[in-house]
Amino acid sequence: MLLNGNLKAAASRLPPQLLRINRRWLLYAGLYLLIALGCWLRIEHVFTYNPIDHIWSDPQRHWEQGTETLRTDPMTLTDPVMYQLYIGILAKLTLKEPLLIALYTALLACLTPWIWYRFARELLPSRLQATAIWAGISLLPSWIAIYGYFMQETLLLPLLGAALYASWRCRRKQSVASFLLMVVLWVAAGLTRGIAIPFAAVVTTWLWLVQPQKIAKAGYSLMLLGLIMGPLAYRSYSAMHLIAPHGVGNLNALYTRSGKRDIHISYDREGARWTYWFASPAMGAKPLAPLSDWTSSREGKVYAHIDITKGSEDWRAAMARYPMTAERYLTLAGENLVYLFFGSSWPDNNRARWLEAVNHHSRWIWAPATLFLLLGTLILWRRLGNSRLLSVLIFTWVLVQGLLPISVNEGRYRKPAEGLLLVQAFVLAGALRRRRAYEDKESGERMAVETADARGEGPPPVQPIEAPKLPESPESPAQDHVPA
Q1: Which of the residues 36, 163, 312, 367 could staple to 185 if both were Cys, CB 3.0 to 4.6 A apart?
Q2: Strands 301-307 and 262-269: what pairing?
Q3: What is the 3-state secondary structure of 427-455?
Q4: Residue 275 carries which DSSP code?
Q5: Which pTM was predicted?
Q6: Most distant CA pair in the chain, distance
Q7: What are the tens digits of pLDDT across the range 110-126?
Q8: Rounded-to-10 torsion of CA 140, 143, 146, 152
Q9: 258 Cβ contact partners less than 8 Å away, ≥ 6 residues apart
Q10: Higher pLDDT among residues 84 and 16, named by residue
């Protein structure tokens, strides 16, 4: 009894806010603890495995393209320019000091989930759901391990989240300024990785069609695109004799269509020669192991010699050697789907590091998750309301990245969709909850009517409502005809 009295006395001296701890407060506390854990994992991973210590293969190519700013070799013109600008700025700010590189990379890694949280706040009605998405993305192994390397996805993920946030903000505000901000961010994302370009086309077209001020938005957007893309198109034409402001994609297209394992390609331009040979990291991998030893049927090498001064002539001749027949397409598309959904993400799949090992094994969840969410989207389509645009983006990703033969897929290309699928799961959960609430309401009303009928009461009688009689104006004489 004395102990209970002391506890009550101590509780009476606490602030009233502490006494009103409920389930919602505990949920927020748990989510913020998970967010803090995710930030710690990101910081610890970047400082332990500093990307400046892993300069080889693709990370080496990206680092050299960014730090050697005046390079005009064909590979520099093949890759999009935005990540090269990012690496150049990072190198200038850090002077290649490992501590500073780790600091800025960790800041970007921690900022990425918060940007997606801002998108979720625009999309979802509940702040609690948006915070849960923040926590989920903070702990996503695939979105942590990649920041140990200089790869384009480290910039694409925050830019994609920012473009999505600006898109749903534009949907809410419907102003010209918000539309132009959305266009700028989608351009930045598209100049980082090409997969953002179809996303941009779908979102901007959708919002332009349903919003007012169409002429102003179209005019200013085209002017903005011209100011950004025009100089980049001239840059690519002057160096490669091709108009490709987003990067020359012919190399990937040829490699994909050839059905070969390796590609050997040489370029000539005014006496200078460059020779490259490489294979996709997916080649030789067994994405279904340990369940199956299946691997790609690609074998052999594709050779090409490109005279840059001839523009697209040599490219067309090389492509013509590998016509896209129905049989070839089905083979390429089938393999691409397997590697996209089951392939291990490279280079962040070093199983000697525990977080990258988790990333490698977690690849199994994405194929069933995608299938389940796509089916749920079709079933609950009428309940999605303002979230249908997000569903269309996911279908667009499956179509473009999975079914179109635009590249040799690998698990790393799955990363943008992982965030979209996580957000879509919360969207479908909310739609399902609304559907159940509606069905419960209908069921309750039906049971009330059946109970009343069983008692013989029937529905309550409807009382007739008499229309009020208007007094006749003494000044207006009676009329024998109907007034017009």
Answers
A1: 163
A2: parallel
A3: HHHHHHHHHHHHHHHHHHHHHHHHHHHHC
A4: E
A5: 0.88
A6: 105
A7: 999 999 999 999 999 99
A8: 170
A9: 302, 321, 322
A10: 84
The two three-digit tokens of residue 54, written as one number: 């892993």
Are the C-beta atoms of residues 402 and 340 closer than 8 Å to each other?
yes
386-429 pLDDT, tens digit each: 899 999 999 999 999 999 999 999 999 999 999 999 999 999 99
Amino acid present at 194 = G
Q: Which of 404, 413, 374 is nearest to 391 (CA)?
A: 374
Give the type of residue at 377: T
3-state secondary structure 71-114: CCCHHHHHCCHHHHHHHHHHHHHHCCCHHHHHHHHHHHHHHHHH
pLDDT at residue 304, as a whole number: 96
What is the CA angle 113-172-424, rounded to 5?
A: 45
Give φ, ψ of 70 to 5 degrees.
-100, 20
Nearest to 124 by CA among 186, 168, 183: 168
Return the SS3 of 17: helix
Could you tell me the CA-to-CA distances from 208 to 45, 180, 380 in Å, in that order? 42, 11, 25
Q: Which residue carries 């995608």 as its tokens? A: 370
Distance between alpha carbon 393 and the CA centroid of its chain, in Å?
8
The Cα-based distances of 330 to 71, 287, 324, 448 in angstroms read 39, 19, 10, 57
In contact, 177 and 217? CB cutoff 8 Å:
no
**How far is C-alpha 391 from the chain's CA centre?**
11
Nearest-CA neighbor of 410 among 280, 260, 251, 288? 280
Distance CA 67, CA 92 (A): 8
Q: How far apart are CA 286 and CA 296, in angstroms?
A: 8
The sheet with strand 301-307 has its strands ordered as 272-279, 262-269, 301-307
CA distance 318 to 252: 12
